[in-house]
Amino acid sequence: MRTRKIRPCKYSDRNRPHLKFVVNYREAGKRKRSFFETKQQADSFAAFKNAELRRNGVGGAEFPTSLRVMAQNAVEQLKPFGKSITDAVAHYVKYLEASAKSCTAVQLVKEIIDAKKADGLSVRHVNDLRSRLNIFADKFDGKPVATITNPEIEDWLRSLKVSPVTRNNFRKVTVLAFNFAVRRGYATDNPAAQTDKAREPKTKPGILTVDEARALLENASPEILPYIAIGLFAGLRRAEIERLDWSEIDFDEGHIEVTAEKSKSKVANRFITIQPNLREWLLPHRKLKGSVTPTNCFRELFEQARVAAGIKRWPDNALRHSFASYYLAKFRDAKGLALEMGHIDSGMLFNHYRALVKPADAERYWNIGPAATEKIVPMTNRGRLLVLKARGGR
Fold it and tell me: How far is CA 69 from CA 63, 72, 77, 109, 314, in A?
């Protein structure tokens, strides 16, 4: 369609006597006027608008120059990424929608904890999750979850005065939190997933010496002793012992059953052999049913036993690691150990524990039994009571 040429016209206004010429044109569908003091300025501007009209057509003339420049700049910036303005707008609209729907970190943590309780996670697991996520929530409280960035999370993780292992545990639960937020529509992506992991030092698992293990058992109260003995000589995880019932300890068949719902292991319903010395420690405390672990004052009872045993530094997961190390040194059976511990791969166990314990120490460990005690037996031998000593296992 032929377009009308833009021309300058004379202009007169007694309130603005310095303006002598006007150029009428259209932009963004609206009539516009620009005023000039000289004909040369008016002709120059009219020529520019006519050239623009020829270059972009009527549609271009109707489109604001500022928007056209903005669009051209956007296209250039998106070109290296192979994205269009439409892609950029769709992404940003999604972000804005998530931001509008988003929640605070405190609210997010509350929803996660409620969901995990409903999913049937253990009290211990939920409490551990809540403890770590509350620290995250305190840091970012008041800020919509959708606006929390990757650098902010990385800076927070690095600011924690904790070990590399603990920092990675914080990172793990933060990734979990943002995955939850994405599923709920509170965020468009997971910035925590792109954070760097801390480099964990390659250290051997900490274990108790034979003398420490014996002292711990001998100084344990009757309430906590079965827990310690099962940890040392059966290698159950802490959570597994806490959920263990006396009815699941079969003294006749000689095994402990760990059911699938009470274990995080992929090896479900596994059976752990009751070693002879473990049997000796458990029999005096045997019950038909009920929790093996004391429900009240567990930490206090365990701490009392540790202090009384003279163990100043408690290695992480010491009971389970001690079992694995002494088992491998005694029985030389990595596959059997993997089954006992609920692992699907024996290679890691063999590489991790094979050099920790000497065979002589392993023999002593698996002979740790209850201390010898004198028992008066109602039998007579020429009018005298017989005094018998129970097996001590030393």
Answer: 10, 5, 12, 44, 67
